[in-house]
Specification:
It contains eleven helices and 19 strands. It has 407 residues and is an alpha+beta fold. The strands form four sheets. Strands 1, 2, 3, 6, 7, 8, 15, 16 and 17 form a nine-stranded mixed beta sheet that branches. The longest helix has 24 residues. The radius of gyration is 24 Å and the shape is elongated. Bound molecules: zinc ion (ZN). Zinc ion binds next to loops.
């Protein structure tokens, strides 16, 4: 962030607050609270499952055009981009939210309103981030804030699960803006005190065991892939995961077999391993691989003479880098100041978000909540309460303006 932040973060915020246009833009969020929520409802009712974000991306692209953003496009990976051009293209800040949800194609994305809450899969994660992108662009345009640098708004694909950060990865490695970004902000989920500056690393596997299969009575003794994965899961669950650095494991999916009286010919599990420290992640990873291999070997060792073996296929389906934007970096300090200015005590946090990717490349990046409150994320009961959303939007606006600067 070479050309960013010419003064201390505190002075930068004070300077921003003395601008009449900025003051008007901050009020915009309160005065348009209902309209922002209506927009969130519209964008979240457009389905977006993993690897099926096109429809939502197209909706966002139309929105970007109507807001006067330029160079609006859906890139080859499926990300939706729009530029809000200031006096210069440097510094260039990416402000992003993710288009995808964790929910399958068959999901009903319709929104239900219950008192103060909106209920729908993905309504907060990342519906409120997408609503924030639109609201920020709207406020800056409507109040004619004179930007020095430029803002690239991006709705990313593939943030969740097996998407494996494919959208943001493309943006920073192959996309045409890849080498031009000075800072990155992801708006993900609700809240106004969290500042995610550390990237939580993870490794994800699909384990597939394939055997001959057969009759439960007549072929008893041939290797059973479900028994083998059961043994592997049982061993993994005994792993002494440290609390500090926080380390976790999860078998999130299990599949296999056709009938109660048939020995399955296949069993599959999907496993998520995470740790705040790379060394612990490697240790857990090695343990998981070993117990899986042992479980298969044991099942094979017991098989009847002449029967074929279980085959193990171990595929890495996700790998997210660890790293951090230092807490004393200008971007994090700016977020601290903006949070305090709004009357909240900032809380540094570690998580797995789109910021993992720019962080791993040494580009200053943070993830912030976009205001309001939420619960039951990644479930069909997910809810979002938009009260106090304006605080999250104000914080985001101050951070963005602090980076790109005013003329
Ligand atoms: Zn999210």
């Amino acid at each position: 962030m070479a050309s960013v932040l010419k003064t201390s973060p505190a002075l930068t915020i004070r300077h921003l607050l003395s601008s009449a246009e900025v003051a008007r833009a901050l009020r915009f969020f309160e005065n348009n609270a209902e309209a922002i929520t209506d927009e969130q409802i519209r964008i979240c009712s457009v389905p977006a499952s993993p690897f099926n974000e096109q429809e939502r991306a197209e909706y966002l692209a139309k929105k970007f055009v109507s807001l006067g953003l330029t160079e609006v496009e859906i890139d080859e990976e499926g990300n939706c981009l729009g530029l809000l051009e200031g006096a210069s293209r440097s510094p260039l800040m990416v402000v992003s939210a993710h288009l995808d949800t964790v929910f399958s194609k068959e999901t009903n994305f319709a929104i239900v309103r219950r008192e103060n809450r909106l209920l729908a899969p993905g309504i907060a994660d990342d519906g409120c981030g997408l609503a924030a992108l639109i609201a920020l662009a709207q406020a800056i345009q409507a109040k004619r804030i004179p930007l020095e640098g430029s803002i690239l708004f991006v709705g990313t694909v593939g943030e969740e699960g097996e998407g494996n950060l494919r959208g943001v990865r493309y943006l920073f490695t192959k996309g045409r803006w890849a080498t031009k970004v000075d800072a990155f902000l992801s708006l993900d989920g609700a809240g106004v005190d969290r500042i995610t500056n550390r990237a939580l690393g993870s490794r994800r596997y699909r384990v597939e065991l394939i055997g001959p299969g057969g009759h439960s009575w007549g072929d008893f003794g041939i290797p059973n892939p479900v028994h083998a994965v059961g043994r592997a899961i049982s061993r993994l669950s005994t792993y002494p995961a440290p609390k500090e650095p926080r380390t976790t494991f999860n078998v999130g999916r299990i599949e296999g077999g056709t009938s109660v009286n048939a020995i399955p010919d296949k069993a599959t599990i999907e496993v998520d391993l995470r740790s705040a420290a790379e060394s612990e992640l490697r240790r857990l990873d090695a343990f998981f691989r070993r117990v899986t291999r042992d479980a298969v070997d044991e099942e094979n060792a017991k098989r009847r003479a002449g029967d074929s073996e279980l085959k193990l296929k171990l595929d890495v389906i996700g790998e997210r880098p660890t790293g951090e934007t230092p807490s004393d970096s200008p971007l994090v300090e700016l977020a601290f100041e903006a949070t305090r200015m709004l009357g909240f005590e900032p809380r540094l946090d570690q998580s797995s978000t789109d910021s993992n990717l720019p962080i791993s490349l040494g580009i200053p990046a943070i993830t912030l909540g976009a205001g309001g409150s939420s619960g039951y994320s990644h479930t069909l009961d997910e809810w979002y309460d938009p009260r106090d959303r304006d605080k999250g939007l104000k914080r985001a606006l101050l951070v963005v303006l602090g980076v790109v600067g005013l003329i």
